[in-house]
Write a structure and sequence with these properties.
Number of helices: 9
Largest sheet: 5 strands, mixed
Order of helices and strands: HHHEEHEHEEEEHEEEEHEHEEH
Strand content: 15-25%
CATH class of the largest domain: Alpha Beta
Strand order of the largest sheet: 4-3-5-14-6
Number of domains: 3
Structural class: alpha/beta
CATH superfamily of the largest domain: Periplasmic binding protein-like II
CATH topology of the largest domain: D-Maltodextrin-Binding Protein, domain 2
Length: 317
């Protein structure tokens, strides 16, 4: 099998895995299902392993197929990146870009990035919805979503922006009046400030124990519960209690001395991240491509999104 056959066969295999059927892959690639099946069979013969199990109704990947799929996707993305880089040099990006992100991230990170984006690409127009509701990016007509949290596997392309570490914070006045907690157990004697997501779930607080186990506190007895993370930071800075907040939200307050970090090293910062998501690369328009790349480059320069946890020791009480 020569290199061109390898590429055709690999594309047939990847699209079959993406679509869950040879017929779906055939529609995507503009060839017949029989040709897709032949390409995948030829690939298996060349590799000497079965990649897919077929039935009359569906296909499923073997263990070898799963391993090959992850590598094949990387190779195809690299090829598409190479093509995109040449196309974008020749064509000036233009058109309308719709972006969805949270109110806080939109205000603090996205909006400051727009002037330089539009200066670089003056034929672009941008529409940004800044709220915390969950959207269906494709069906709701968005080009780009900037999302934070525990990002699940998705059919969307996901580009990482940063980790979103959590920290426990309180104002110096509050800690002077009420003392500094030294364990998760001490929090029972403190006024807690909680965040409730729009779906109704209160964000739990997790702690790492010396024996490797974890303790989780549900702050249901919080004196104040809010849905907006930036409002939670404000309330903590006003001296009402201890809050669990994103480090990037609290960073300016820490620098100004309006907040201090508590239980650092014991509190679990979580596994949250901020990502940019958009539909599969084969569908991406130049206007979306240049916007994504600009935002990733701009966010890379934002030091509040990349604060090492060890630096927080400078802001303990």
């Amino acid at each position: 099998m020569d290199i061109s056959q390898h590429v055709r066969a690999t594309l047939s295999f990847v699209e079959s895995a993406n679509e869950g059927s040879f017929s779906g892959a055939a529609r995507k690639l503009g060839i017949s299902p029989a040709a897709v099946s032949k390409n995948v069979s030829g690939l298996e013969a060349a590799l000497g392993v079965r990649l897919m199990n077929r039935t009359t109704r569906n296909i499923s990947l073997t263990e070898e197929g799963q391993a090959f799929l992850s590598q094949a996707r990387i190779a195809i993305e690299a090829l598409e990146n190479a093509v995109d880089s040449i196309v974008l040099r020749k064509a000036e990006a233009s058109g309308h870009v719709r972006i969805s992100t949270s109110a806080a991230f939109g205000r603090d990170q996205l909006l400051p990035a727009l002037p330089s984006l539009l200066a670089k690409h003056p034929k672009l127009t941008v529409e940004a919805d800044l709220d915390d509701r969950v959207i269906d990016l494709v069906n709701d007509g968005y080009d780009i979503a900037i999302r934070g949290g525990r990002i699940l596997d998705s059919s969307l392309i996901t580009r990482p922006v940063c980790r979103l570490n959590l920290a426990l914070v309180a104002s110096p006045d509050y800690l002077a009046r009420n003392g500094v907690p030294t364990s998760a157990e001490d929090l029972k004697q403190h006024r807690l400030l909680a965040r409730r997501f729009l779906g109704g779930k209160v964000l739990p607080w997790a702690f790492n124990n010396a024996d490797g186990s974890h303790t989780v506190i549900e702050p249901e007895t919080a004196v104040v519960t809010l849905s907006a993370p930036e409002a939670l930071v404000e309330v903590a800075a006003s001296g009402l209690g201890i809050a669990q907040v994103g480090v990037h939200h609290a960073y300016q307050y820490l620098q100004e001395g309006r907040l201090n970090v508590v239980l650092l090293g014991i509190h679990d910062p979580g596994k949250y991240e901020m990502v940019i998501q958009y539909p599969h690369r084969s569908l991406i328009a130049p206007r979306v491509k240049v916007t994504v790349e600009h935002l990733l480059e701009y966010f890379q320069q934002d030091e509040s999104l990349r604060i090492p946890l060890e630096d927080l020791y400078n802001y303990t009480y």
